[in-house]
Specification:
Keywords: Exonuclease, Hydrolase, Nuclease. One of its GO terms (molecular function) is exonuclease activity. Pfam families: GIY-YIG, RNase_T. The N and C termini lie far apart (73 Å). The chain is α+β, with helices and mostly antiparallel strands. The protein folds into four domains: 180 residues, Nucleotidyltransferase, domain 5 (2-Layer Sandwich), CATH 3.30.420; 81 residues, GIY-YIG endonuclease, CATH 3.40.1440.10; 98 residues, no CATH class; 73 residues, no CATH class. The strands form four sheets. Strands 3-2-1-4-5 form a five-stranded mixed β-sheet. A five-stranded antiparallel β-sheet has the order 15-14-13-12-16. α5 packs parallel to α7 and α12 runs antiparallel to α17. It is built from 17 helices and 16 strands.
Length: 456
Amino acid sequence: MYAIVDIETTGGHASASGITEVAIYLHDGKEVVQQYETLVNPGVPIPYHIQSLTGITNDMVADAPPFEAVAPLIAGLLKDRIFVAHNVNFDYSFLKHYLELSGHELKSKKLCTVRLGRKIFPGLPSYSLGNLCRHLQIPVYGRHRAGGDAAATAKLFELYIQNDTQQAIAAALKAGSKEYFLPPNLPPEQVLLLPATPGVYYFHNQKGKVVYVGKAKDIKKRVNSHFTGNNAGRQRQEFLRNIYSISYQVTGTELMACVLESVEIKRLWPVYNHSQKRVELRYGFYLFEDQQGYLRLAIEKRRKHTTPVYSFNLLVDGHQLLRRLIREFELCPRLCFLQTGTGTCTGVTAGTCHGACEKQEAPADYNQRVLQAITHLQEQQPSFAIIGHGREAGEQSCILMEKGRFYGMGYVAADLSVNSAEHLKDLLTPYPENEYILNLIRHHATVNIRQVLHFS
């Protein structure tokens, strides 16, 4: 027995919207055998644009029962029946949410008449209820009212049953089938063809724009996990409605997938990705020449489109390191902005400053020591490669860090003998770095020592 359902609501997600009307048509596979319709007082005002769309006004629902009053009857009608609706996850999420709030449970198999329409009547320009009914010459009485749309969906479902030569309905109901969890606009074959390998996947909207980027150890398993459950929140429901296609890139390892995901989020800025969009408050040493010709090292927050000569996470770390460079390379604390004011230079008192701040040392002599300090910093940073599994036999993956900076990654022949970072750079694809990527690679290198190839 099928329960063909349509509801009208005050908004697009159950957690912050109310139900204004419910219609349930019980169908035995041949015809409607029972029907139920009721207005519902949503407990919140109905927005004007929804009143205009549905014709249901605040006055009409003022004396209607609240949902909890009709919940026992609705729960009874839906129990042990297959839940059928156009864009089924929308109606199901609302009724499940409000039934649970009323102390009832909804656990039903689901059929989506949008998804079934794509299989039974393929190639149509649109699978909206209105367009399907026009194409199949199904009369609709009371469009955007629960009763009228449920009656039209019942007629549509009857045509599906009569024309289901490929057993699409049985396949969707088959034990273990997860198809009814999928977003209504996503072709199921795209999910079936996903590989069970590490990589990055992309969800695209109707216009082909990437709206979400994710990484996975197993792409197929991770993608399917997005669609299970019946979260009633606005973001999840909107997210599911906007997924029209999936693309992906296979990577050799999960680490490469993590790195590529971060790069792609920064590049594409997808609307449904929220992590890794925050501003990174890293610091760096910046070098510039003042009007007297002296090179000056300054600690500043990293600026967009600029590259510091050295980077660090915490301001206190930068100050400690700069003080060490001042001692070891006899730099001036004033020219490095560690001393302000008009008093005597502390570097002169300590014997580390040769008087550059008082123009007693030539710029060329002072600048030479500044450049030596920078070279020392950069040479102290490690260069190494992380070698891992390739995407297929005969290749291995490689992530290259050069002097503490992320250079890039890619794939090389499994039997390649790697002797230097320079040798690898010609074989790998350069990528931009960020704090998240650097921390990922450094942590992985620390934990997985056997995968690390160090260069002198």
